[in-house]
Amino acid sequence: MKSLPAAVAIAAAILAPAAYADCSYPQAPTQLPDGSTATLAQMIAGEKAVQGYNEQMNAYLSCLKLERANWIARAGSKLTKQEKQEFEAIEIQKHNAAVDQLHAVADKFNAQVRVFKARGKKSD
Asked: What is the C-alpha separation between 63 and 97, in angstroms, rounded?
């Protein structure tokens, strides 16, 4: 009977990546405007790109949470407490990495907004 828990653990390991198959990691904006040379229209377009990325990232994070819940529900009582915790730890790592990436993009854009605004104040 010792092989049954091992088989469940192996199945969980194999199925875990499949649980996230429908959650597409969003692509960060490839180009953000340079605040030192950008026009107002370019800055607004950059803002919209970052906002769109934020919305896509929030959808991705919601998808991760939903997929985890669905996977745990499908596995039911077959999962041990440790297996659930391991699976949740994976979700937490993915969540934190995604949030860190989102913050990095927002911080980069906000730095360019400050440069853009400072440039406008010099001409006043």
From this structure: 15
Where does residue 76 fall: left (phi above 0), alpha (psi -120 to 50 degrees), or beta otherwise? left
Q: Judge contact between 77 and 111, C-beta under 8 A.
A: no
CB atoms near residue 29 (< 10 Å) = 17
Separation of alpha carbons 84 and 73, rounded Å: 11
Going residue by residue through the chain, which has 124 residues, state the pLDDT in tens, using 9 for 90 and above: 444 444 444 444 444 444 445 799 999 999 999 999 999 999 999 999 999 999 999 999 999 989 888 888 888 788 888 888 888 898 899 999 999 999 999 999 999 999 999 988 765 4
Q: Which residue has the tokens 């990691």?
A: 25
Q: Is the dihedral of CA 60, 62, 65, 67 positive or negative?
A: negative
pTM for the full predicted model: 0.75
Which residues have CB under 8 Å from 73's CB, separation 6+? none
